[in-house]
Structures are given as C-alpha cells and as structure tokens.
C-alpha cells in the first residue's frame, strides 16, 4: 500500500517512536526507496543506524516486516528494544515453546505485529512459507547480508536460499544490510539476492569515535591488563581470543587482577552462556573474554573497548568485531596485540579446514591483508578503510597518527636474517635464529655446529626482541614462509632480490606503549561535559537509570543511552515538553520513564531551565 509523503511520515515516526529529530546520512534515501516499494543493499558501519532503514518503512506501511537474522541473541535484543519503544514485535525461533511460537505465528498472520524476526532456516520451510502466503508482508529485511556471499568472512550456505524471495514475493521490497563487504562480496550479495546494481547504497565505513591501536605481542595478557587498567578500568569491554583455553586462562588472569571478567565460548553449558550474556547486557563494567562465538547481534551501545589478544582471520572480521565498541558514538578503543605465532596458528587452522583449495587461498590472502594492516606505518584508519574502497585523510585517532612510527632501512638486517635462515637449513623458528645471530652460547646451537656459521654472532647491533620483530615483518612481507606443522621459517621466491641487493627493505620500529590519561567511563562523559554540575547531574541520572533497569529487569541502555543522559545533563529539561526534545526520548519512553528522570532533573535544578 502506498503512503502519501513518505518523507514527512518517516520523520514523524523517527521523532515519535525513536525520539530523534533527524536521520543520519543515507538513512533517509534508503528509507524513502524501501517505503516506495523498491529494493536496497545497504552498507553502513556498525552503530551507523542500519536497523532504522527497515524498521521505519515497516512502520510506515500496513503489514508485517519480516527480518531475516542469523542469531537468536540478535533477535531477542532487537525485539526487546522495539517493545520498549511501543512497537509490536516478536521473534519466532527455537527458544520459544511450541505454544508461544504458534501464538506469534497467528499474531503475524492476523497483522497484530509490525516486525517479526526469523532465522533463514525457518523462513524457507514449507510451513513458514504457507504462513507468509496468508500474511500481509510489508517488506523483507535480510540482516548480516555478507553471510550470503562465499567471499564474505562469515559465509552461511542457507543464506543463499533467500534468492527465491524475488520470485515468490515479487511485489514485496527487499532490503539487505551489512557492515562488512569488500567489492567482490558486494557484487556476490547483489547477484545471489537478485538485486540490481543501482540498489547499492554505501554509507561509508568510518567509525571516527574508535581509536585503533596495534602492539607487538610480548606477554600479551600483561599487555592487555595494563591497557585495561590504564585506559578502561571499570568499563564494559570485550576481549577476543583464538581458543577456548585462551579464553578461560585470560578471564581467570583478569579476574585475579581485580577486574570483573567472565569467559564465554561455545564449549560452555548453554545456561552459563545465557547467564553471561544476560549479565553483560544488564551490568556496567563487565569484561567478557570470548571466542568469536560472542558478540554478533549484541546491541549494547556502551562497550568502551574491544581487544584482540590474538589476530582475527581477516580485515572484515576485525572490522566487524571492533565495531561492537562505541556504538553510542562516545570515545572507544580497538586494541590488538599480535605476533607471527598468531599467523602460524591461523594458517594451520585454514590449511586443515575442509574448505576447497580456492577458499583456502582466499583466506590466506585475507590474512596477509590483515598482517599488512598490523605492520603499517601509515594511518591505520586509512589502511582499514582503503580495504573497503574508502578514501580517508590521516585520522589523528590511531596509534600511528598519535605516535608516528619510526621506520628504517632494514636491507642489511633482512639479508642477515634471511642468510641465517638459509645457512641453518630452513628448519628453525625465529627464536633459535635470533640466538644464532646474537652469538648466544647454547648447547643446542653448538651441538648443531651453528656456532661455526658465518652468520653466528653477526647481529649484535640488535637485541633479541628487535630480531624477532625483523623475522615477524619478513613473514608479513612474504619474504619468509612458516612451516605450518613445526613453525620453522623458510625462504620464499621474494627473498632472492633482497639477498642479491636488488630490493630494499624498510622495517618499522616497534614503539613502546604510550601512556594515556584516560582512566574510565566517567572520563568519557567528561569529554562531553566540562561543567562539574553537569557531570554531577549525569552521575545522578545514571544512578536513576540503574535503579529503573533493576526494577524493570532491563539492560540500562534500553532505558536511555549515555548520549541521551549527557544531553539531559547539559540542557536540564524540567518539563515533559522539554524532555521530549532530547534525542533518544520517544513517546513511549517519555510516558514510561519521563517522570522518574524529571524528578532527578528538577531536584538538581529546581529554578533553572535552558
């Protein structure tokens, strides 16, 4: 059903339901297109407002918006948030009893719901398709659309079955959404979902509030602990580790150091995982140490940092995981420590996987791109965004901008390192090779006769950590390859020009960790609130939010985001009319929570308004 003046209608819904006065860049264009019955593929950064691009058109039109979502956690979080806004929404998945699922299905068919979230596996079943044939469907939204593409970092074959929607429901608009897709993946999504090239909307990939930092790994857990204590003590955060054992040991290490930290991985009992996730959503200042099993679909806006203790598989995975920080737009950190041992582990996993050879080659290439990002001396944001086709000026909000990395002509050092690899038989790892270059007296070296080699002791200009950095960078640059079974180094074809002196090599100096004055979430508010009275009021508003969250069994952010509380503290509204003009205060929340917050505001400023 067409709607007159969709632009004015969408703005009215944005204000009344969601409490915002204006759309973010690109949102209005996409919403107008879908509201007019046309299709779209939307690329926006995490936290960029993708959900509104289908939620608002669903509310404009009669009928039910069907949202295809890959994870139960994502469905639960979205539906709960919508219900707090007064939107009739439901999910239909395996977490429901049969009776509850039937009730939700009947409500969908009867038109008593505006948005229904389902998994792709359920959507394509004959039974659910029969239900849809009896439902007035307003639109189909395909979330996490990169799952459609075999070139994407999270390919799911069941997503490719969604191509049938174009034929079976030709008059229903389809909107696919993702935060991570390079050029090849975008084209694959368009083709697999039957979308046209002009259906593509790219909203940029930049998250300017996130500070990117990468440090060379040297006792990673201690480096992580120092980072959290220095930058984010008392903040909510996520730490990613490659293995379940690494998750549990890291969580225990952080907890022993006095942090509120919990592990999360697929090997834990479902009830434990559910309770951990519930606590993360409801509590402030909890650090979750997890494998990548945690995080997708988590809309918690006040995650102040995402840390990687091990490198992820690709820039797409890194971008998506770091994007879970700072969804509220306030300052946040993406911090990672890495060494070439991480790359060895990942390459071993890739090589031993059941993927075909073409897919394995692609995964290795993607890892190479990530290692290049780790080793860059350029602005990290420039390198990250260039991967997705975005141009960007130096950001002044990453480690290489804030503390420029020194580089040096490392040709002679590279020749020494590569010669040492060759003369020791290309069967040793970086630690052993560094000891040979340093002339270390060692029974193993003497037993092998390597103390008699011409490369023994020729590297005393560097210390051991510097030689390990040289080997790491030679691996990342492709001059050395790593044996995936034993971790030993061997020369590649790219090493020959360096050894012959035909190619120069530049290395980066691993910088020392920079000290920071930032110490926790209250300082994030101070960046927005410079008046001590405003900051005191902000703390009082947060305390009221905590109290209401406990009373209603809600995550605090589902009541109001920090950004909304900051605006309240700054402008001090004293009436419902004034409070309604604060961003993030929609009609339902004004009715439900407005009086409680006005009580705090008026107590702090009984004779003052602005």
Secondary structure elements and pairings:
Blueprint: H1 6-18, H2 27-35, E1 40-43, H3 52-60, E2 64-68, H4 72-84, E3 89-92, H5 98-110, E4 115-118, H6 120-123, H7 126-133, E5 137-142, H8 165-168, E6 174-178, H9 183-192, E7 200-202, E8 210-216, H10 220-231, E9 236-240, H11 244-256, E10 261-264, H12 270-282, E11 287-290, E12 303-308, H13 315-322, E13 332-338, H14 340-352, H15 357-375, H16 380-387, H17 399-402, E14 407-409, H18 411-423, H19 430-438, H20 443-448, H21 464-476, E15 480-482, E16 489-491, H22 495-499, E17 506-508, H23 521-526, H24 532-552, H25 562-571, H26 576-579, H27 587-604
Helix pairs in contact: 1-3, 2-3, 14-15, 18-19, 19-21, 24-25, 24-27
Write up this protein.
- The chain has 610 residues and is of the alpha/beta class.
- Helices cover 46% and strands 12% of the residues.
- The protein is built from 27 helices and 17 strands.
- The strands form four sheets. The protein has a seven-stranded parallel β-sheet, with helices on both faces. Strands 8-13-12-9-11-10 form a six-stranded parallel β-sheet, with helices on both faces.
- Strand 5 (137-142), helix 8 (165-168) and strand 6 (174-178) form a beta-alpha-beta unit.
- The longest helix has 21 residues, at 532-552.
- The radius of gyration is 27 Å and the shape is globular.
- 46% of the residues are buried.
- Mean pLDDT is 88; it is low at 516-522.
């Amino acid at each position: 059903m067409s709607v007159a003046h969709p632009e004015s209608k969408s703005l009215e819904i944005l204000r009344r339901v969601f409490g915002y006065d204006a759309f973010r860049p690109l949102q209005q264009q996409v919403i107008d297109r879908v509201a007019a019955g046309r299709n779209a593929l939307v690329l926006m950064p995490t936290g960029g407002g993708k959900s509104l691009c289908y939620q608002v058109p669903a509310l404009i039109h009669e009928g039910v918006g069907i949202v295809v979502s890959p994870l139960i956690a994502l469905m639960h979080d979205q539906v709960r948030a919508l219900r707090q806004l007064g939107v009739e929404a439901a999910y239909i998945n395996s977490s429901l009893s049969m009776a509850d699922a039937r009730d939700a299905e009947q409500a969908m068919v009867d038109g008593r719901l505006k948005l229904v979230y389902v998994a792709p596996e359920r959507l394509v079943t004959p039974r659910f398709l029969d239900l849809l044939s009896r439902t007035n469907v307003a639109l189909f939204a395909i979330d996490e659309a990169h799952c459609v593409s075999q070139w994407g970092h999270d390919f799911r074959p069941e997503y490719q079955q969604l191509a049938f929607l174009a034929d079976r429901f030709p008059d229903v608009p389809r909107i696919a959404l993702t935060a991570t897709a390079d050029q090849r993946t975008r084209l694959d999504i368009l083709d697999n979902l039957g979308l046209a090239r002009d259906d593509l909307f790219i909203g940029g990939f930049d998250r300017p509030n996130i500070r990117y930092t990468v440090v060379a790994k040297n006792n990673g857990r201690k480096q992580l602990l120092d980072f959290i204590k220095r930058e984010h003590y008392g903040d909510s955060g996520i730490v990613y580790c490659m293995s379940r054992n690494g998750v549990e040991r890291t969580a225990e290490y952080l907890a022993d150091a006095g942090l509120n930290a919990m592990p999360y991985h697929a090997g834990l009992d479902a009830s434990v995982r559910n309770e951990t996730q519930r606590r993360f959503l409801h509590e402030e200042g909890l650090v979750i140490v997890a494998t990548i099993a945690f995080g997708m679909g988590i809309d918690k806006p006040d995650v102040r940092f995402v840390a990687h203790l091990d490198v992820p598989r690709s820039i797409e995975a890194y971008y998506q995981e770091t994007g879970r920080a700072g969804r509220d737009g306030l300052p946040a950190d993406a911090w990672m420590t890495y060494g070439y041992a991480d790359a060895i582990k990942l390459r071993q996993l890739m090589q031993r996987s059941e993927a075909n050879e073409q897919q394995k080659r692609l995964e290795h290439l993607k890892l190479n791109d990530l290692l290049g990002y780790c080793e860059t001396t350029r602005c990290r944001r420039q390198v990250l965004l260039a991967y997705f086709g975005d141009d960007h000026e130096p950001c002044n909000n990453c480690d290489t901008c804030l503390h420029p990395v020194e580089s040096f002509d490392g040709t002679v050092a590279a020749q020494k390192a590569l010669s040492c690899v060759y003369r020791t038989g290309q069967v040793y790892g970086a630690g052993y090779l560094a000891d040979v270059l340093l002339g270390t007296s060692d029974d193993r070296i003497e037993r092998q006769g390597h103390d008699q080699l011409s490369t023994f002791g020729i590297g005393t200009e560097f210390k051991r950590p510097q030689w390990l950095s040289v080997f790491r960078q030679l691996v990342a640059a492709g001059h050395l390859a790593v044996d995936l079974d034993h971790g030993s180094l061997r020369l590649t074809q790219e090493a020959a020009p360096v050894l012959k002196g035909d190619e120069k090599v530049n290395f980066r100096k691993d910088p020392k960790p920079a000290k920071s004055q930032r110490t926790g979430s209250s300082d994030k508010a101070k960046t927005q609130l410079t008046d001590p009275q405003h900051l005191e009021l902000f703390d009082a508003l947060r305390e009221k939010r905590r109290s209401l969250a406990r009373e209603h069994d809600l995550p605090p952010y589902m009541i109001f985001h920090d950004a909304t509380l900051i605006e309240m503290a700054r402008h001090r509204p004293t009436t419902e009319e004034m409070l309604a003009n604060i961003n993030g205060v929609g009609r339902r929340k004004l009715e439900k929570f407005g009086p409680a917050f006005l009580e705090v505001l008026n107590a702090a400023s009984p004779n003052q308004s602005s």
